[in-house]
Design brief:
The complex is a heterodimer of chains A (about 230) and B (about 110). Chain A is an all-alpha fold. Chain A is built from 8 helices and 2 strands, in the order H-H-H-H-E-E-H-H-H-H. Chain A folds into 2 domains: about 1-30, no CATH class; about 35-225, Four Helix Bundle (Hemerythrin (Met), subunit A) (Up-down Bundle). Helix content of chain A is about 70%, strand content about 5%. Chain B has helices at about 10-30, 35-60, 65-75, 80-100. By secondary structure, chain B is mostly helical. Classes of the chains: A mainly alpha (about 230), B mainly alpha (about 110).
């Protein structure tokens, strides 16, 4: 959408003065397409949900008098005859970062109206996301077979299991939803759905915001749950 | 913002992508360090750098107007208060468990599974 429409044709004031102008003038506050503003507000609410999970995990971990299991040993994998700590989690982290990169490129190609490249980059992003979820499913299966439950586990504090399943489960659900979202938008880009609507590809950026957010949440989960 | 939304040279994405790989490598490397203040600091540092890079470059927040930046990035600051309150609460609960149930405060040992 052009700035002139959002802005009533007035010039945009930069910086702090612009902040006052944006809120005070009789116009739409955020100079971005409404879909993008709403995605940001949704992501803000999601930030609070994930924060509640992580803060809850922090407080049960502080409060428990049982020893907290060492994530680097619980999540270690055998590779080349050695126990490599957090191996699968590290690979998952790199897979998700790679997918964020392909998504960023897809957004760029979308604005260049290169539908073919946008489509394939979004499909690549979705495949990497599906790979991530598959590895997480493997991780869950492994831990469950070792006796980790939301209410108990053989390694120490019972709260470890509940935090693990809630936090990674909720994140995994976001990734799964993101894969579906990406595929829907990717196929619409390819079949010309947006050409009929004025050839506007900001939807790719909005989808990208959601996807990058999922990666962003993983950064915090990786730091607080797996490394701390 | 330009007429067609957020358009930037590809180079900046490649640099950010590379930086995220390097920073994630560093994050993972902290797992091989001994526990302590230095390790905690590095975990938080690499986390913030990664989170900042994703938000600023990949999510284009750096190029948005101040009104949007503050509306989205301002409210999460309140979470710091929640963290502070819940850590006090957690410590208090731990103290009462030790005091009234006679449970001991054990340092996490690393009970592996092999």
């Amino acid at each position: 959408m052009s700035e002139a429409v959002l802005d009533g044709g007035a010039q945009e004031v930069p910086g702090k003065e612009g902040l006052v102008e944006d809120w005070a003038r009789d116009k739409q506050v955020f100079g971005v397409p409404w879909g993008k503003a709403m995605m940001w507000i949704f992501l803000l609410s999601d930030t609070f949900i994930f924060s509640c999970f992580l803060v809850g995990y922090m407080s049960v971990r502080i409060a428990t008098t049982d020893p907290w299991p060492s994530p680097s040993e619980v999540f270690a994998l055998q590779a080349f005859g050695y126990d490599v700590p957090l191996l699968l989690i590290a690979i998952m982290t790199f897979v998700l970062i790679t997918s964020s990169g392909t998504m960023a490129l897809a957004v760029n190609m979308g604005y260049r109206k290169d539908r073919n490249k946008t489509f394939w980059l979004m499909v690549a992003t979705a495949l990497l996301g599906a790979t991530f979820v598959s590895m997480q499913a493997y991780e869950w299966t492994k831990l469950i077979s070792e006796g980790v439950r939301p209410w108990e586990n053989p390694f120490g504090a019972a709260q470890f299991g509940s935090s693990f399943f809630m936090i990674t489960g909720f994140h995994g659900m976001h990734v799964s939803a993101g894969v579906i979202y990406l595929l829907v938008i990717a196929f619409r880009v390819r079949n010309g759905f947006y050409e009929k609507r004025g050839g506007n590809y900001e939807i790719v950026e909005i989808t990208g915001l959601y996807w990058h957010f999922v990666d962003l949440v993983w950064v915090f989960i990786f730091a607080f749950f797996y490394l701390w | 913002m330009a007429e067609e939304g957020q358009q930037h040279p590809l180079k900046i994405y490649w640099i950010m992508w590379g930086a995220l790989f390097v920073l994630s490598g560093f994050s993972y490397a902290t797992d091989f360090m001994d526990d302590g203040a230095v390790r905690t600091f590095l975990i938080l540092l690499f986390m913030m750098l990664k989170a900042g890079g994703i938000t600023w470059i990949f999510m284009h927040m750096g190029w948005e107007r101040l009104a949007l930046k503050l509306a989205i990035l301002g409210p999460p600051v309140a979470i710091l208060v929640l963290i502070w309150l819940m850590s006090l609460e957690g410590l208090y609960i731990e103290d009462t468990r030790v005091e009234y149930y006679g449970e001991s405060t054990m340092e996490p040992e690393t009970p592996g599974h092999h």
